[in-house]
């Protein structure tokens, strides 16, 4: 797959509420993913997309015969404009929003302007197309989240599906992945994605490229990839583009 030249904001019909793993549904638009985990006690939304994604969420909920009131929690892999777009609107509906404790401050204060490194990457056509697609869906219009619950490494969250928190910093300081051990489903956020956003090519799961220009800390990204590799065989649901199934231990030598 390559990022097309003229990405339109659109709903990828086939990915509006598709069951991508047991009891897990993908909501995807312009390459950015949200997921719904179905538990006995309602739904958990993993990541909150972009501000224009409310229709996508509604369409996905409809497809699985649910509605907003069935969502009992929003859990965020990290605080970036393309992962928090619906967080504050859903919080206003009374749905608690969860972030890692290292992301709390920025969640509450808002993201502000992008770092200078972001602009230094703008000579790359594929990167520009990626960013333009996100902007079409409202990147930059996201609101700070007025109130958040926080979690820490290793915590099993008391939300539908009971995902376990794996702290995977690097792309952002408070970045986390979520793990469902029984079904071996890994919500990797942007710790491992299946798209090289610098070239637009599909890749095996890898940390977001762009080094420290685009990420918080490249070395931490690599450590986090090795940490996730200790999980071995997974169904990996990334923050962007397509899921992947396989043994992460074959891609990265697991951390000691
Ligand atoms: Zn992202």
Per-chain topology:
Blueprint (H helix, E strand, L loop, with lengths): L10 E11 L2 E6 L2 E8 L2 E5 L7 H10 L7 E5 L11 H6 L4 E4 L3 H6 L6 H5 L4 H12 L12 E3 L12 E4 L8 E5 L4 E5 L3 E4 L4 E6 L4 H4 L3 H12 L3 E6 L5 E4 L9
This protein binds zinc ion (ZN).
How would you explain this protein's 3D organization?
This protein has 256 residues and is an alpha/beta fold. It has one domain (11-246): Metallo-beta-lactamase, Chain A (4-Layer Sandwich). Helices cover 21% and strands 30% of the residues. The chain is built from seven helices and 14 strands. The chain has helices at 54-63, 87-92, 104-109, 116-120, 125-136, 211-214, 218-229; strands at residues 11-21, 24-29, 32-39, 42-46, 71-75, 97-100, 149-151, 164-167, 176-180, 185-189, 193-196, 201-206, 233-238, 244-247. The strands form three sheets. Strands 1-2-3-4-5-6-7 form a seven-stranded mixed beta sheet. It has a five-stranded mixed beta sheet with strand order 8-9-10-13-14, covered by helices on one side. Strand 9 and strand 10 (185-189) form a beta hairpin. The relative contact order is 0.16. Mean pLDDT is 89; it is low at 1-11. The protein binds zinc ion (ZN).
* Morphology: globular
Q: Strands of the biggest beta sheet: in what spatial order?
A: 1-2-3-4-5-6-7
Strand content: 25-35%
Determine the N-to-C terminus distance.
Answer: 34 Å
| The number of domains | 1
Poorly predicted parts: 1-11
Name the assembly state. Answer: single chain
Succession of helices and strands: EEEEHEHEHHHEEEEEEHHEE
Going by CATH, the architecture would be 4-Layer Sandwich
Domain Metallo-beta-lactamase: 31-240
Pfam families: Lactamase_B
Protein name: Beta-lactamase domain protein
Organism: Haloterrigena turkmenica (strain ATCC 51198 / DSM 5511 / JCM 9101 / NCIMB 13204 / VKM B-1734 / 4k)
């Amino acid at each position: 797959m390559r990022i097309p030249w003229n990405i339109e904001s659109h709903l990828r019909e086939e990915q509006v509420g598709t069951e991508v793993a047991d009891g897990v549904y993908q909501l995807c638009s312009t390459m950015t993913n949200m997921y719904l985990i179905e538990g006995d006690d309602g739904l958990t939304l993993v990541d909150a997309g972009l501000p224009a994604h409310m229709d996508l969420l509604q369409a996905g909920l409809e497809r699985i015969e649910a509605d907003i009131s069935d969502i009992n929690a929003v859990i965020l892999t990290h605080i970036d404009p393309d992962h928090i777009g619906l967080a504050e609107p859903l919080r206003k509906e009374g749905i608690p929003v969860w972030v890692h404790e290292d992301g709390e401050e920025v969640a509450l204060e808002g993201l502000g302007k992008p770092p200078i490194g972001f602009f230094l990457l703008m000579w790359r056509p594929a990167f520009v197309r990626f960013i333009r697609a996100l902007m079409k869906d409202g990147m930059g219009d996201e609101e700070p989240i007025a109130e958040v619950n926080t979690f820490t490494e290793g915590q099993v969250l008391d939300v539908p599906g009971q995902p376990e928190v794996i702290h995977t910093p690097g792309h952002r300081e408070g970045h986390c992945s979520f793990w469902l051990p029984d079904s071996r489903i890994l919500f990797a956020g942007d710790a491992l994605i299946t798209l090289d956003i610098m070239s637009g090519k599909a890749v095996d799961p890898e940390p977001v490229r762009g080094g420290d220009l685009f990420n918080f800390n490249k070395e931490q990204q690599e450590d986090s990839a090795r940490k996730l590799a200790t999980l071995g065989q997974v169904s990996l649901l990334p923050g962007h583009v397509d899921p992947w199934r396989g043994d992460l231990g074959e891609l990265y030598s697991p951390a000691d």
